[in-house]
Amino acid sequence: MKITTKETAEVLVIHLEGRLDSMTSEHFEKEVTPSIQQSSLNILIDFEKLDYISSAGLRSLLIISKELKKKEKRLSLCCLNKTIKEVFCISDFDKIISIYPTIVDGLISFKE
Amino acid sequence: MSEIENEKIVDYLVVINKLGRRFTAENDTRWGGLIEPNPSENTWKNSTGLKVALFASWDYGYLMLETLKEFENKYPNQLNLVGLVTDNSLNPNAKISLKKRVWSLLDKPSRVIDETIIIESGLSHGISVYIGDVKTNSFHDILKKWNPDAILVCVFGQVIDSFTINFPRYGIYNFHPSDLSNQQGAGPAPYEDLVQRNAQTGIWSVHHVTESIDKGIVVGKSPPVYVRDDNRELPVDPIVVYHKLAEVLSPLAFFFVKELVRNFELNKPGRVNTIDFNSLIPDKIKNKIMQPLTQDLWTDIQSVPKDFLYKSG
Questions:
Q1: Residues 6+ apart with CB under 8 A from B286
Q2: pLDDT tens digit sequence for A5-29
Q3: Which of A83, A87, B110, B252 lies in the 20 to 30 Å Cα band around B151?
Q4: ipTM value
Q5: Which residue of B has its CA nearest to A52?
Q6: Which domain holds residue A26?
Q7: Residue A59: closest CA among chain B residues belongs to which residue?
């Protein structure tokens, strides 16, 4: 899995490429956790090039979301493909993590 | 959530992930069914040693499964994990006391993760995973096919019937996080028992499974696990306390399986009637589990301590 990041004044945007599963979720958490600890940015994760997310990937998102909440910050996701979006809706993940159709929508949401 | 929606989640998270995995719902099960791994998963797994089936769920079940897998990886000729049966906590039709047990403390996203992670872990080890009703002819047929010599149970939501209880030659045993021999904490809410008794420590019991829940003969008890924090307070979140209690689960499962394997290798079928965990578990672990709780330990303890298992072999 490839992880690239870009920072704005308020948001850390993380672009994921490939699969977020048991093989990659530990690496993902290790990459993201220092950003949560060292900065006070919200996080927007771009799923456009993510092919698959497993339970382990969902677990990582839940952990990140909880860590951000402790700092009164938010995790949002954008550009989910149809199948992943459906899984998020059925499993109620969309009730604890905000989902936006585009990066722009996601970025605007942090200004509201 | 409908059953179809539930199956969509399981399908997405554990079946379509690997081509060749199959989900089958038998006609006589009221919920769930059997998920079979791709035949190419874990092809090195052999079929020698004590055959064990695990009926378990949630984080405790996952930890038990990982411990048994690690045991089998290290000693492939001694142990053969043959199947996993787990709670289908996402299915509203499942008769697993959802509202009384640990599941009632968890939101749906957490249940999705907990259920599918244990299923994925079993399938990737090359074993079938059953998530349906166990009191059916079709499950009895599955059990006959697995043909376990022993069954271990931990956080399992269904009453197990006499067919299954009487099936394994080396017995069926439940791991329960309370001191059952002193009539403490039987049933679905051991945390409430700790609160009511104003307890400093918790204890695990391993007991024979009978058709009455948590009533079978206790064969062994864990050393005490300190469940309070630095301020000597019992955390208000039951999950945090349950995770602290889990610190000793992996060693308990390891030494118990070792005892079963010993009986198997001596060709001595029958139930284990007593085991002295206190003398088996190293002092280092006993000291560690008596330390105060500083944070939710799950992230630290979910990986089985491999060095301990290997040294204790």
A1: B223, B278
A2: 998 888 999 999 999 988 899 899 9
A3: B110
A4: 0.82
A5: B17
A6: 2-109
A7: B113
